[in-house]
Amino acid sequence: MAIKFRVETTCPATGARAGRLSTPRGELETPVFMPVGTQASVKTMTPHEVEAIGFRIILANTYHLYLRPGADLVEEAGGLHRFMNWPHSILTDSGGFQVFSLARLRKIEEAGVTFQSHLDGSRHFISPEKSIAIQEQLGADIIMCFDECPPYPCDYDYARRSMELTHRWAARCQAAHRRRDQALFGIVQGSVYPELRAESARTLTEMDFPGYGIGGLSVGEPKEKMLEMLDVVHGLLPRDKPRYLMGVGAPDDLVEGVARGVDMFDCVLPTRIGRHGTVFTRTGTIIVRDARYARDFGPLDPDCGCYVCQNYTRAYIRHLFKSGEVLALRLATWHNLAFLHRLMEEMRAAIRQGTFPAFRTEFLRMYRRAGTSGDPSKGD
After folding, report:
1. Is the dihedral of CA 373, 147, 55, 76 positive or negative?
2. How many domains does the chain have?
3. Active-site residue, 72 included
4. Exposed, middle or buried: residue 171 (CB in 10 Å: 0-12, 13-18, 19+)?
5. Range(s) of the domain holding residue 192
6. Which residue among the candidates 93, 147, 253, 301 is catalytic per the annotation?
7. Does residue 266 carry a catalytic annotation?
8. Which of 141, 253, 263, 266 is catalytic?
9. Percentage with pLDDT > 90 across the chain
10. What would the pLDDT profile of 79-136 be if each residue is shown by its tens digit?
């Protein structure tokens, strides 16, 4: 089996889970946040720096790597791990979200999707079978079924047709999957319709995947709807398999997702907002480029012990942003990733110690008191 997963502690009040996920390249403690390396690179960071923060799994993007440099080249280089010099676990998404959100003039059919590249307008076709073949060439440890991610809003009939297509494509992905050293996850869809989410969770559970993505959320729907859909699937997905909430990375959303039994998360949020001068703190996000920080000689977050907060001030990092220095992007990104890594560590500890409900209440009180929350954008 490509992965092994066990839940070691469950919070009786919320259902939050602390466990361990083993892949061919090592063991991970869950719940876990996965930095996004869209093009085989976590933007502005070296693999060694990402590793030094403590991460042991990252995400790479099938759509982007298929278009550039191409799966054949990555395979020739020895696979994605060797190509990007990352010795730990990698998850690749299927490319479905990017096909539907980035590609131009796409045409969705039963066979797959014909689309134009966002890079040069060239025409391409990806089917469930081709998505699996690309991911097998890339060589990630965990790969995802090709699915249709419906937009928000969409009507019930569209959401149902999209969900049913995703289920048929999931069966084709299973049939096409050959590499036993890779774990193939199914993806629950159904937009914001509870009965569709429940049906999708039950259908995919019957297909017996080794893990389950929860897709089609954080695409513009109200946060309350996202949490409602997580509540729906929480009691339906298998308790002994990992659950992966796709494209969610705001700190308060991570806490609420963990409270609903989610084990894995990814998002470009920490790197994207970092490059634009916004950083996480215990009391919400701050825009360190703002003039108020010109003479602020404290760390980005007084409660953070990361490399950046130990060595640099808000005033200095603001100066770097105003001067157009690349180091500004790197330091803000580094801090944001370290903030999320520490947050996941704290949640795991709280679950194991039986204090997660109190941790959740206090964290959300502090983080939201300034009325700030991250942009849930999934693009990069």
Report:
1. negative
2. 2
3. no
4. middle
5. 4-266
6. 93
7. yes
8. 266
9. 94
10. 999 999 999 999 999 998 998 888 888 999 999 999 999 999 999 999 999 999 999 9
